[in-house]
Amino acid sequence: MDKWMHPAIFYFIGSLLLPFIKNKKAKKFFILFVPILSIIDVALMQEGVFGKFSFLNTTLIFGRVDKLSLIFAWVFVIMAFLGALYALHVKEDGHHIAGSFYIGSSLGAIFAGDYLTLFIFWEIMAFSSVFLVWYRKEQKSIDAGYRYLLVHVFGGLLFFTGMMLYYYKTGNLLFDRVAQGNAGLPEYLILAGFCLNAAVIPLHAWLPDAYPEATVEGAVLMCAFTTKTAVYVLLRGFPGFEILAIFGTAMTVYGVFYAVIENDMRRVLAYHIVSQVGYMVAGIGIGTDLALNGACSHAFAHILYKALLFMGTGAVLFMTGTAKLSKLGGLYKYMPLTMIFYIVGAVSISGFPLFSGFVSKSMIVAAAHHEGRLTLMLLMNLAGIGTFLSVGLKVTYFAFFSKDEAPIKAKEPPKNMLWAMGLTAALCLIIGIYPNVLYQLLPYHNEYNPFTLPHVSEMLQILSFTGLIFFLMVKKLAPEDKMNLDVDYFYRKGARIFMWIDEKVISVVDAFWGELYKTFALKLLFKNANISYGFDRIAIDGVVDGSAKGVRGFGGLVKKLQTGRIQAYIGFSIFILILIMGFVIYGM
Question: Which of 227, 200, 224, 424 is nearest to 312 (CA)?
Fold first, then answer.
């Protein structure tokens, strides 16, 4: 196949055409048609390298198509369709345009074969996704969006600096696997930029800060693309890095700890993104084929069940106006379909047999066991307990069942939202029952079978024990309306300290320097300017103007000699000739 169409093109062009479609039904059709075209495009792709261009003594590669990029392309375009369906009721074109640029840039990143191309799409991702936060149009969202953008600009600078140093070191910008033994400052700066987008602790606080403040529909997209694009680039460039195994495992426990004590449903899910991405990062760090396949399969499954969970909590927020567990309860009577779909997502993330998380997450745990990394394996299993405790039990119970009557009356969300949740729930179930549907897309050789008796028995015991703990401690786990501090506390306080220093010190020094400049420097400058002007007017202009007047006078004299009579010209010429001869004779 010589011709290749980049799927990002559909989203970029589609977003530009969308405002010109005025008919409401036609606009909804177009919003769904764009991701359908991208799905067809990915289905027709064959492996190879496409879209190579020479630029500034380096080669840009827009289309590196292999099994690793294809598995992420598949889940991205599927999620793009589900996200578009879920947001079909949104009227603002700008919201859809931001989402399209966000999806298109994510696809651009996973097909990029060089660092420069990757960086371009990387930055488009950051600047387009922030509008999905700002479109909520609340002060908290605006503030969170600015913090989100500043943090990602910092991550982009780390990436860019590392990229430039890498080019200086190697003479090329090819994006490929980095050997841990050959990694230096350039590679670790690039790794740090990638880790920030993957929400690797302690670079994670932007995620639970921004995602809960995004629009209902925007959060569904954001939970799918930013961190999973980062997982992809870590898979591509840094498999086997021990630091990722350690920090990834720490993420699984850290995110769960905060999720258990959170009150806001979407903050619970945001911290679980940190936890679940931790499994993927740990798998990348372990670096075996089984672990890397586990990271890929878990990224695929996670995008779907996490989107389903955000769809369910978003529907509750959309219909009740709040996502606070302390203000909810008894919604099963009013939103039964939403409750069912949410529970499918909850049991999927918890790793219940026959659901998608069971066939993906366990692959990473098994890889840790095979490599003798027992500490990592135990911590991952501990995080699994916390996952079911918080997402599966706490949120489900306090949002849908804790009170006989809901304190806030509600009803089911619009049909497009229900259809999106239903389709996503079906995919979670299909993958859980028929894991080979997912496994055949994996990039490395795979012989993993999740449905062994020890594995099924182990998971059922863990889940049953967790359920018992919850119902024994349900009063202790009751949500409280409070704010939990995270590491973002330090840069928030740091920003306030900087602003105080700017106001009290820097601005004072700047004002003093400004007055000093006005008093002395400007006066001296004006005096010098006056001297220069006088010299220019009297000396330079006098010489130039005097020369011009002399030339003009001589020209006027010559003009008078031009009488037009030939006898006058002959006489004048004889006169000049006699003069010359006289000078010559006199000189002799």
Answer: 424
Nearest of 207, 277, 281 to residue 237 by alpha carbon: 281
Is residue 251 within 8 Å of residue 201, measured between CB atoms? yes
Task: Please report, for the chain, how many H helices and E strands are present, in that order.
Answer: 24, 2
Provide the H-helix boundaries in 502-565. 507-516, 522-535, 541-561
Rounded CA gap, 125 and 103, in Å?
A: 8
The residue whose two tokens read 């670096």 is 287
Question: What whole-number distance in Å separates Cα of residue 332 and Cα of residue 578?
Answer: 126
What is the token pair recorded at 566? 């030939």
Residue 295 to residue 298: CA distance in whole angstroms: 5
Task: Extract the tokens encoding 126.
Answer: 């950051």
- 343, containing H or E segment: helix 336-350
Residue 303: Cβ-neighbour burial (10 angstroms; 0-12, 13-18, 19+)? buried
Alpha helix (H) residue ranges in 112-202: 115-134, 139-170, 185-197
Q: What backbone phi and psi angles, to 5 degrees, belong to 198?
A: -80, 0
Cβ neighbours around 488 below 10 Å, total: 17
| CA end-to-end span of the chain | 97
State the CB neighbour count (10 A cutoff) for residue 363.
25
Residue 491 half-sphere exposure toward CB, CA atoms < 13 A: 16
Q: Angle at the Cα of 361 (from 357 to 364), degrees rounded to 5?
A: 165
HEC sequence for 133-151? HHCCCCHHHHHHHHHHHHH
| Triad 274, 279, 280: Cα angle to 5° | 95
Rounded (10°) CA dihedral 499, 503, 509, 512: 160
Q: Are strands 58-65 and 48-55 parallel, antiparallel or unpaired?
A: antiparallel
Look at the block and give the residue holding tokens 């098994």. 366
Cβ-in-10-Å burial (0-12, 13-18, 19+) of 57 comes to: exposed
Per-residue confidence in pLDDT tens, the chain, 588 aa: 458 899 999 999 999 999 999 999 999 999 999 999 999 999 999 999 998 888 877 889 999 999 999 999 999 999 999 999 999 999 999 999 999 999 999 999 999 999 999 999 999 999 999 999 999 999 999 999 999 999 999 999 999 999 999 999 998 899 999 988 888 999 999 999 999 999 999 988 999 999 999 999 999 999 999 999 999 999 999 999 999 999 999 999 999 989 888 889 999 999 999 999 999 999 999 999 999 999 999 999 999 999 999 999 999 999 998 999 888 888 888 999 999 999 999 999 999 999 999 999 989 999 999 998 999 999 999 998 889 988 989 999 999 988 767 677 789 999 999 999 999 999 999 999 999 999 999 999 878 889 999 889 988 998 998 889 888 888 887 877 777 777 776 777 766 776 777 677 777 777 776 677 667 666 777 777 777 766 666 666 666 566 666 656 655 655 665 655 666 666 666 666 666 666 656 555
- Residue 493 CB partners (closer than 8 Å, separation 6+): none
Query: Which residues on adjacent β-strands are paired with residue 58?
Result: 55
Report DSSP state, residue 477. Answer: T
